[in-house]
Design a protein that fits this description.
This protein is mainly alpha-helical. The chain is built from 21 helices and five strands. The protein has three domains: about 130 residues, 3-Layer(aba) Sandwich (Rossmann fold), CATH 3.40.50.620; about 110 residues, Serine Threonine Protein Phosphatase 5, Tetratricopeptide repeat, CATH 1.25.40; about 160 residues, DNA Cyclobutane Dipyrimidine Photolyase, subunit A, domain 3, CATH 1.10.579. It binds flavin-adenine dinucleotide. This is Deoxyribodipyrimidine photo-lyase.
């Protein structure tokens, strides 16, 4: 501990000690105060809240192991930072950048207000492989298509190597008057209580930097080999499961990139995985350049799409009771664990926006509330991609058939049997179309809520009106 003028390290979506450029900078300037502000102006989904509780607890624990602590404040970001800066006599405040419109606006306000008081404020690149403005077309404009963007990224060479955690950082003494406004993670009320629906999340996930690296190491040891082919099969544990760790910044994309690249030495599986990590950057770069991506169609002609209003169909989709096993398995996996396999995310999103003709924003809102990796960039970006209204989107007329998608990517029905146990007894030939089983058709499992051919024809007719 030290009582000379400190720097405030303002943690946000970067809840880690290693490869944290802002923290590294703060520690090199002198004593550090570590701060997290829980601001209601940045609403979180239920699953994200559950994760954040664990994430803050682990970060506080990790800091205390080094003689520091995480100061947690609840309330308006600007007011909280200003107040704490005054209380501790901070000379500077540092953070890693965010790319959403509201976040950028708040960060700019905070920076201006601090500078006006003579307090240095500095932002760092800590959450992307490259900053959005570093990858541009020859004309200096944003890329609208992933493949040329990814080629441009690769032409830049490897992203910056990750930084170590600060070596024996010095932590500032936080005066007791400031302590009165600090809260514990429990006091933020992030955990569900009545009812406690988080049992499945607890069974599957452990937030924190240590758990992120354990998962990354296991992925490199066991799964990266074969990733390019196995990643499409939801019954296999073939993907990394790193998405919530990247979402909350327990691990940085640069750490992931360098660790996997070093292990894979450029083979096909490694290249495929790194390009997926690239999609994350591309989604954030798109949000940076098109700030209303979360609410507005990137292709304005879709503003005229005649979306339906059908609360019963939406509820059936949310609850995994559509009568289509691959859809229901995915939605139940999401509800139970806060995560869903990427292939199944695409199929359930296509079903909602095409067979049910419901607005992608309704689906994105449900994902935002239920995903532990819910992300202001990746979530709407991918919804717009599937719905056809994204920049580099799958065409609207590409409509996934949930039966053939199930047969192709879950051929033995293992994934469906795990999440839809009431049809587990069916033979493989009916597992993706249980209504065809005749007298063996399971009771208690719903009949299909929409006819596939009819829903497809309705979707195409709607699209042709644009
Ligand atoms: P891996 O296959 O191991 O990939 C490694 C990492 O690459 C992921 O952790 C993720 O950070 C990134 N990545 C992979 N695919 C994508 C992609 N298509 N777009 C952006 N990043 C990607 N991902 C989120 O992180 N948050 C979301 O809110 C989100 N919403 C989605 C909504 C829809 C409708 C769809 C189709 C996809 C969405 N994705 C989202 C992308 C993808 O489904 C998840 O990133 C992936 O399933 C996470 O599992 P993993 O970590 O095992 O992935």
């Amino acid at each position: 501990m030290s009582d000379s003028a400190p720097t405030i390290m303002w943690f946000r979506d970067d809840l880690r000690l290693a490869d944290n450029p802002a923290l590294y900078d703060a520690a090199s300037r002198g004593p550090v105060v570590c701060l997290y502000v829980h601001d209601p102006a940045f609403p979180l989904g239920g699953a994200e809240k559950w994760w954040l509780h664990g994430a803050l607890s682990v970060l506080d624990h990790d800091l205390r192991a080094q003689g520091g602590q995480l100061c947690i404040m609840a309330g308006d970001t600007h007011e909280s930072i200003s107040w704490l800066a005054g209380q501790v006599g901070a000379v500077s405040v540092v953070w890693n950048r965010r790319y959403g419109p509201h976040a950028r606006q708040v960060d700019a306000q905070v920076k201006a207000a601090l500078k006006a008081r003579g307090i240095d404020a500095h932002s760092h690149p800590g959450n992307m492989l490259h900053e959005p403005w570093q990858v541009r077309t020859r004309q200096g404009t944003p890329f609208r298509v992933f493949t040329p963007w990814w080629r441009a990224v690769q032409a830049k060479g490897a992203p910056l190597p990750p930084l170590p955690a600060p070596d024996r950082p010095v932590f500032a003494v936080v005066p007791s008057v400031a302590g009165g406004r600090l809260v514990t993670p429990a006091a933020l009320g992030l955990l569900p209580e009545h009812p406690d629906w988080a049992q499945g999340l607890r069974a599957q996930w452990q937030p924190g930097e240590g758990a992120a690296h354990a998962r990354l190491d296991a992925f490199i040891a066991e799964q990266v080999h074969g990733y390019a082919t196995q990643r499409e099969l939801p019954a296999r544990p073939a993907t990394s499961g790193l998405s919530p760790y990247l979402r909350f910044g327990h691990v940085s994309p640069r750490q992931v990139w360098h660790a996997v690249d070093a292990a894979g030495k450029g083979d096909r599986d490694t290249a495929c995985f790194l390009s997926e990590v690239g999609w994350r950057d591309f989604a954030h770069a798109t949000l940076f350049d098109f700030p209303d991506m979360g609410t507005r169609n990137l292709r304005p002609e879709y503003d005229h799409m005649p979306w339906r209003h059908d609360p019963a169909a939406l509820r059936a989709w949310q609850m995994g009771k559509t009568g289509y096993p691959i859809i229901d398995a995915g939605m139940r996996e999401l509800w139970r664990t806060g995560w869903m396999h990427n292939r199944v995310r695409m199929v359930v999103a296509s079903f909602l926006t095409k067979h049910l003709l419901l607005d992608w924003r309704v689906g994105a809102a449900w994902f935002a509330d239920t995903l532990v990796d819910a992300d202001a960039a990746s979530n709407p970006f991918n919804w717009q991609w599937v719905a056809g209204c994204g920049l580099d989107a799958a065409p609207y007329f590409r409509i996934f058939n949930p039966v053939s998608q199930g047969e192709k990517f879950d051929p033995a029905g293992d994934y469906v049997r795990k999440w839809v146990p009431e049809i587990a007894h069916l033979p493989d030939k009916y597992i993706h179309a249980p209504w065809k089983a005749g007298p063996d058709a399971p009771r208690g499992y719903p009949a299909p809520i929409v006819d596939l051919a009819g829903g497809r024809a309705r979707a195409l007719a709607a699209w042709k009106t644009l």
